[in-house]
Amino acid sequence: MISIDSVGEFVWVLGLIAWYVIRYPFERRAKRVRVVGTQRSPSDNVGLAAAVFGMAILPAFCIVTNFPRAADYPSNIWSVGVGTISYVAALWVFRRAHKELGRNWSISLEIRERHELIRSGPYALVRHPMYTSFLLMALGQFFLLSNWVAGIAGLIGFSILFFGRVDKEERMMLDNFGPQYRAYMETTKRIIPYLY
């Protein structure tokens, strides 16, 4: 019989695969659009590395090796259910954000040729729905993986990326779009609709 722990791990692996399947075509298309401004820095690379490590590498290592076993705890159906719902919501927001951004999308802090300020779809509610999706993924990981190290790693990786980058990203958008972006900031929250 399949354990509930295995179900959570399976959902997490499927979610990670789905994340990459969603991202790949947008990444390919973005390489064809010229970058006209960048704020990429070593700290940006550290944030990206922390997110990848905490939300993919470390949990995958924990699943494959079952290390550290001392950090395991019993899983249950409600936590796997919450984790699954969170991960599905994350992937939906992730896909919608990519679709709305289109040619404006970039993995790092870059302004593309003919960059536009997007305010539709999830951008009508929050300025940074990609980070919203990462937060939902990290929460999903916490509930899906019944290991304290693997579970909390995603939240730590997300936090390093988000808090190390969001202020720079908003300054870049203000520099590029000026009053238009400032007005947009006044009508939206950063990553959690109506709250933050």
UniProtKB/TrEMBL annotation:
One of its GO terms (biological process) is methylation. One of its GO terms (cellular component) is membrane. Pfam families: ICMT. It is found in: Membrane. Keywords: Membrane, Methyltransferase, Transferase, Transmembrane, Transmembrane helix. One of its GO terms (molecular function) is protein C-terminal S-isoprenylcysteine carboxyl O-methyltransferase activity. Its main location: membrane. PANTHER family: PROTEIN-S ISOPRENYLCYSTEINE O-METHYLTRANSFERASE, PROTEIN-S-ISOPRENYLCYSTEINE O-METHYLTRANSFERASE. This is Protein-S-isoprenylcysteine O-methyltransferase Ste14. It is a multi-pass membrane protein. InterPro entries: ICMT_MeTrfase, Isoprenylcys_mtase. It comes from the Bacteria. The chain crosses the membrane at residues 6-26, 46-67, 73-94, 148-166.
